[in-house]
Amino acid sequence: MADLSVNVCGIDFKNPIIPASGVFGYGREYEELFPLSKLGGIATKGTTLHRRNGNLAPRIAETPSGMLNSVGLQNPGIDHFIDVELPNLLTKDTVILANFAGSTVEECVEAAEKLDQTDVHMLELNISCPNVKQGGAAFGTSCEMAAEVTSQVRKATSKPLVVKLSPNVTSIADIAKAVEAAGADAVSLINTLLGMRIDINTGRPILRNNVGGMSGPAVFPIAVRMVWQVANAVKIPVIGMGGVSSGKDAIELMMAGASAVQVGAAIFTDPYAPIKIIDEMNEFLDSKGISSVKEIIGTVKPW
Ligand SMILES: Cc1cc2nc3c(=O)[nH]c(=O)nc-3n(C[C@H](O)[C@H](O)[C@H](O)COP(=O)(O)O)c2cc1C
Questions:
Q1: Top-level class of domain 6-296
Q2: Where are the domains of the chain?
Q3: Ligand 1: which residue has its CA nearest to atom 23?
Q4: pLDDT (tens digit per residue) in 266-289
Q5: Model-level pTM?
Q6: For the segment 133-184, what is each residue's pLDDT rounded down to a tens digit?
Q7: Residues having CB within 6 Å of any atom of ligand 1
Q8: What are the φ and ψ backbone dihedral angles of 29, each rounded to 5 degrees?
Q9: How far apart are CA 77 and CA 79, in angstroms?
Q10: Which is the catalytic residue, given 9, 108, 129, 143?
Q11: Positive or negative, the Cα torsion across 255, 68, 246, 92?
């Protein structure tokens, strides 16, 4: 059995596999299936300062080898997360990353201040949300806005701060460099890619929100490319995700430069996916005689 442990920003993970934010809730449904302690970590459903009901349905659409979602950050609010969900999660012997977002810099800062007062292990700031004070463009689509929200949140917490990047940009490496300079301890990527489907019988978009975020196996090559570009652009660790559905995918993303890997939509096809991925990584490393998964991080040999 290979050593699957990794260290990201000084935090020890028993293995690199982390269910991604939004596909695992707060773990309650999944702990009936397997012990959460088998996971390297858990990225919790994005929380916001106030409760959000999310977007109107339909908010999920299937796509070839993927899906679109426009859930709209439905969540019970940060106080519920801190008082009810987090205490349960902190008993599970796995690393907890609290994913959070806001519609203004101030909201993100206030959420970070609240999370800083808890025992959560890491914060993951989702910058794919619209900044309502800047015309609704997502924080993560400009270097200036991404740096501003990162630097303000940085001042609000001493916990390891992971900034989760949007792929809906021209140069994700530039955004990564901007948030690194603003004080991020790590970056995670990719969030969903903006997409749209139309019902040709009604002429209506399938999603009530018209557009939504694309994820699942179809986006995997984009994730590999972006993780590789970002890992080459920054010195801080990169947590990779986007379309991972097998142990070999996770190995590939780590070769591209990821220190840990999140698993999203694959969990909807198979709730045991994270456990199978951990086992498959072990089998691959054993078959190659590699004793530690750390040995493969960033080892791609570009032509
Ligand atoms: C239904 C759904 C809800 C999501 N909710 C969040 C969220 O609350 N916060 C966040 O940062 N990302 C959220 N994501 C994005 C995922 O965490 C991940 O970045 C993305 O789906 C790409 O990974 P995948 O292809 O493995 O799903 C969500 C994705 C899905 C499918």
A1: alpha beta
A2: 6-296
A3: 242
A4: 999 999 999 999 999 999 999 999
A5: 0.98
A6: 888 889 999 999 999 999 999 999 999 999 999 999 999 999 999 999 999 9
A7: 20-23, 45-46, 69, 71, 73, 99, 126, 164, 191-192, 215-216, 219, 241-244, 263-266
A8: -70, -30
A9: 6
A10: 129
A11: positive
